[in-house]
């Protein structure tokens, strides 16, 4: 399974390295050491008693292995697809069981139970984010300081960001929907703005496309939708130049996915992280390559601190309809996240969750949702979702 050629005791490591690999002189040991550009942490190089007697190389291995992780093999893709299938089903199970009066941690429990009990995924890729109401404007809600403990209120939105892990390979899926199963008009407005951004990005993805351009496309679509509803006003180009999109979407559009939820390789040598608001949060600005797996996760949030900063800025402030903004101050946020595999001609959506508002309402009311196996021979929409 692991394709191991030799097995020895660790105590004998120095001796074995000399005996097995000294045919052409003293062996050179390549050690894994380098910076993870996503976390900012450095990997810890291997060490053993007697290593100081060997020649070592700390710079060669890390960028090579990192790049190997960027492009997925068929086996890796199969693991990620299975994790997505499991997570999609578990998300739907949460949709079916959610109701006002529950606790957020109960939604986390439903997801974990389904993934483990029915699908054999014993671990999650990351701490579950089960944010409802105003909590959904906290991007990484669910940690120890905000532990998914709020009571669900009738009429609020739920933002569920959860992913199961299989054989160490992760998934990362977010679904947003009303707790009571019926979208209100203001919820529909924000949700459809994000859905449009999500779908348009997916339709543009193919090898050679720059990820920073996809982020800007998502920002533009969100701003266009908000302008249509008179939440903001003015020229979209001027808003983009002013980086207004970062007020509503302060995070990056997505990240590489694999063994780590935020897989390494986002900034290889020669690529510098942008400095502008929103863009500096991008976990990669690479051109897409065939074989990559990357998340697409646009969002729109009404975050008090960011809105106050925008209101205090004389240039940014003029773009906002502050009377309308006031109506959304306790809204929270919406995020839609799918996992995409970049193909030679475009991309494949590995995630299979209801996305249209009518699909979500139907599933929450008890309507069936076809699994990927059920819809493999059925007609699909442009972004790979089943037509029901």
From TrEMBL:
Question: Which cofactors does this gene product need?
Answer: Mn(2+)
Q: Which Pfam families match?
A: Peptidase_M24
Q: What name does the UniProt record give this protein?
A: Peptidase M24 domain-containing protein
- CDD domains reported for this sequence: Prolidase
Which controlled-vocabulary keywords does the entry list?
Answer: Hydrolase, Manganese, Metal-binding
Q: Where is the Peptidase M24 domain?
A: 80-344
Any one GO MF annotation of this record: hydrolase activity
Lineage, top-rank taxon, reads Eukaryota
